Amino acid sequence: MGRIKTVATLFFAAGLTIVLVALMVAADTIAQQAIEALTNPTVLGKVLSATAAFEPIETIQAPILIYHHIKDFEGSDAQADALYIVRPQNFEQQLTYLQDNGFTPLLLRDLPDYFSGKKVLPEKPVFLTFDDGLRSQFEVAAPILERFDFPATFFVFTNPIDRSDNYMTWDQLKTLVAAGHDVGSHGHYHLFWDRISAAELPAEIIGSKNILEDQLGITVVTTAYPFGEYTPAVTTAVGAAGYQVARGIGHGKNHRSDQLFTLDGYFVTNSFSYFKNIVGGR
């Protein structure tokens, strides 16, 4: 009986030794794999990018693109409207170019987080924006955006919503929000904010923001100046109203952290060569 216990003890000890050796080998293998992973440029780049998330950025280079109608020309369209109409096939060609050249579309509402380092800025950022809340943006542009999985910011002036066939409905705007897009203010009546009286300004800046928030159940932090016009008094009022980002119209894609209320944006046309010149790429 004693010999049996001795043999059992030896087997147990041998088994325990095998287990310990196996654990040591596994630990050594894991450590070696970790070292190899961290010396891999791709993995190391991801680690460094995650670390960089805590580093604030002073300047971001990113084109902000401005669209209006996405549709084909119609007989009733005036020649002056050509600047505001991009054909669907041209719009799709532009998004394909962004995708093929490694651009990452972002939401303007997140721009402060990219400056502060709360979010990691991708290598080639771009911002897609749509002005006025036009019906073609929902019926034509949104399905194309969905195919590319590209988010966009829709700047809406609130007076015609649910009141005109040329503009979106509240349900359509809610659908855009649910799909991952953002909605910002473009005023209530689409007036020149730099020309109206101080008494009229709150209804445009604050009133439109409140309407959007009440109807859509979101916090509105972005706005686009109607006609791209603003003054120092207007930008001050925008900041005081609780907005964090405001876009105008211009010809620059270098944005500074102290210029969040005077961002430049490019009108997009049907010209593919002009589009490539705006965004860059290969």
Automatic annotation (TrEMBL):
* A single BP term in Gene Ontology: carbohydrate metabolic process
- Give the record's keywords alphabetically: Signal
Location(s) in or outside the cell:
Secreted
Q: Which GO terms describe its molecular function?
A: hydrolase activity, acting on carbon-nitrogen (but not peptide) bonds
**InterPro entries (UniProt xref):** Glyco_hydro/deAcase_b/a-brl, NODB_dom, Polysacch_Deacetylase
| NodB homology domain residues | 124-282
The protein, known as = NodB homology domain-containing protein
